[in-house]
Fold these 3 entries.
Entry 1:
Amino acid sequence: MEKLTVEPDIRASDIERGYIVYTNSNPEHIKQINLDVGIDEFESYELILRTLKEADKFSISYPENFRKNIEIKIAEVLSTEIWKKKVHGQKLLSIRSFNGKKDEDTHIWLILNSNGLKPGRHKIEISIKPENAVEEKISINLNVWNVKFPEKHPLFVFSPNTLFNYFCVDKIQPPHIAEWEWNFKKAQPYATDLYQHGVRQITGYSWHNVGYGYKYVYLRDNGKKAS
């Protein structure tokens, strides 16, 4: 199966440990994560664990006093076909233990929120416990800013390549789309569901088409286009 990760920078200490925990932006074994959030904001963060020795069973825990602020999910990698091309995605499972197979990756998602945390810096330490190797601790340094998103109808800005767009527009002829025709009645249920799952905004551009998505942004107060 096609890998969903970069190759980790495996060192002698990682082999001795028996596994490496890394991210797609940092291929080295990580000891801490720094995140900025607003008040009552959600933030998802992916860790990747690769087992380097024999198969082992892992479990993940966190302090009880932060049980409202962190949720652990393990991803099941699934594949489907879109426009005759095989693509892979992740189904998040509400489990905190998994069996690691030698030389294979496990995707660990940390779903964090700042609910009840005062503005300032907070430290959450998670523990990764293999049955046959040394336990590893990773510190999450959460910086809560004194900023709050709207409680209802937050700002949604869409990338032209966001799957959300294909659910919420009419008369699409992929892959050649001359113009979007939005159906706001279709969009509302998806926007509501995204909000209920902690999503407060979506990027407004893609790497090859900076600024394109902003032509479809409407101002909340008067309904006029922003551009």
Note: The radius of gyration is 20 Å.
Entry 2:
Amino acid sequence: MASNNHSLAVRTSWPVLAMLGAGLLAALAAAATNETALLLLVLALILMLPFLPVVQELFRANDADRLPIPHVRDVESAQLNAQLLGALRARAAGNSQRPRASGMLGSILDRHWDVGARVTHQSEAGVDRGLYATEKITIETGSSLGIAVAEEALSIMPGASLSEWGYGRRVEVCGGRLDGTVVGREILVSGDCTFRRLHGAAIRFGFAATSAASTLAAARDENAGPQSLPAPRNERQTIRGDHRIADGEVVRADLVGTGTIVLGQAARIEGSIKARRIVLERDAVVTGCAFASIELTTEPGSRIHGVAAVDGELVMNGGTIGLPGRPVSVSAQDISVYGAATIHGEVRVRRYGEFRHA
């Protein structure tokens, strides 16, 4: 990306800046005993004033570096889930020998586990327990469970809570509270809920499991197949203050803004974007990544193909982040989703995540 080239330019400029500083100090020492030299030095400094913004830009490497993605566990959700499934399948097959495991996996396997085929959990006293089903698990309204692992489907009813880990090839969240990690090939969130960490090939907010829209979206993703991000571009544009990209305009560059950048309807950035605030209006597209220090807002039909990271709040009033077959990470201090939105990859919330119907 252009930001990497810029950071390299800044690093290589340090020796030059050090030499200039040493020369300036030597000139000041000589000028202290020579009035003519002092006058020439003052004149040189005045002539350099127009170039101060350039010097400032050299020192501002941080405006081109991406915002940090929060630290996560060394073991990724998908890898940990595969290890957990292997151990539980062996236990269900009658192998009582516990596999060697440490860290989070060891902590999960040390719990008391109940095993069944199709299980409905209806208890509030299940936070310290694990439940494994060869087919489906349903966590009923008002129930609490620590760990739920189902080979086929996991359903979480309104008012239910899952505190640590959940997996199902298909996860249906009709409401409730998800305080831990939920992993699934497809996660459908149809009811008001809170969440912390979700991982799936497709995470669809505002889609009911049996809705025509959900079926159509899944078929469209499957037909699209794996996609790749565009090759990085070297061009970089710095935008001072607030700026709006006109409806339908195409920008082929990486944008770095000091204020708010608004992408008008159907506007397109073929590159990445970073600013204090970013707004993608209806059908706007960013083919790279998006990094915001305060807020990132997406409207229906908008798309971000790459990573999205926000130091503040991500507000999704619709739109899509990621590509089918090309999962990305989405992280923010807070995430609020209203209406139909899709994320391909992993969602990480540092403080509070919620879905509410529009």
Note: Confidence is low (pLDDT under 50) at residues 1-13, 61-75, 222-231.
Entry 3:
Amino acid sequence: MIEDIFIYFSGFFTYDYKFFNPVIWTFFISVFIYLIKQKECLIDYLRTPNLLQKLWDDKIFKIALLIVLFIVFTVILLVYQNIAIGLKYGLLNELVRHTFPYVFFAYLIVYLSQKKKDSLRKLAKEFINFNILLLVAETAYRVFARYYFHNEQGSFYFFKYDSFIYMDSNFTALHTLSIFTFLIFTQHILSVKFYCAKWLVLILLILLTFSRTAYLILPLILLIRYYRNINIKVKIAFVVLGIFFFGIALDKGFIERILEDESLLSKFCLFEEFFMFLKQEVATVLLGDGSGNLVDIIFLASHNLTGFIMEMGLAYFLFMSLLLGYIIKSFGIKTAVMLLPVFLSGIISLYPLAYMSLHFTSFTLFYFLKIEGKKHII
């Protein structure tokens, strides 16, 4: 159905045209079409006896309500920051960046709760296929076409930037990891055609992001998925490889190269600045230095969760953590694996705040596939 289009486009961003992102416009178009089609059903539903009680008893409604409350809190916090501190990139930009992924998430949960099992499976397969094609196109442009037309050479950093989707291939890596994780954990439900080929293509795409964070996360995802299925010899091989890489890490030359890596050093600087941040006034620690302002304060962007906390404050981070924790508990702890790449990347390297719609989609689809399209009140 055409109103499903926002799910396929949940990871289609164009960072140079912030307010013309396909993910935003397809979302609003899909919502509009869905409301038009379901207008009479919605009117009848609003006339249901004891509607409020039925809604309150429904798990999906409670989750959607909590997300809405979090959005309201975020809006109030950003307005306060804009008045009290000032926001480097403007209030409107920060409102869209922070609230849209959660507006998307709330609608997505309610929307998918209405889907039947067969529709969910078809939608999930198309979601995988569309994103693989999108990621292949992104990689072709970022790595091959750009090199061919510009004929430039240099370090691997040359192949990390100026994509038509993300400004940094670390975000592409997270996108690819999300689709890969979704593929390998739903194969027993979906029976995806050409599974091995898609598995290998996604691995190759991850390698071509040149993201060291992704290289660390990928083996962990594979280990979680296949650990029970592999024999003792393969498990021993994992241990030997771990010892080997640990040995490389102890090599003096390797350590020297690491210490010269400005990108990695910036992450350590963020941790150092975070502990300095915690020593500031209570109001600043709770309410943050202002979304997007970190680059003017410590001359570093808020790549990871420590920088994110400095900008938005501990109160925001606590609310967000409790919200996601509650949703994961409600959906079942096993669904957390869909958000694992995001959590790990947020700690190690970067947190994809503005791009969470894609990760929320794989997470929510996985939950509804897991319960095989069980119907809810809404």
Note: The chain has one domain: 2-40+54-370.
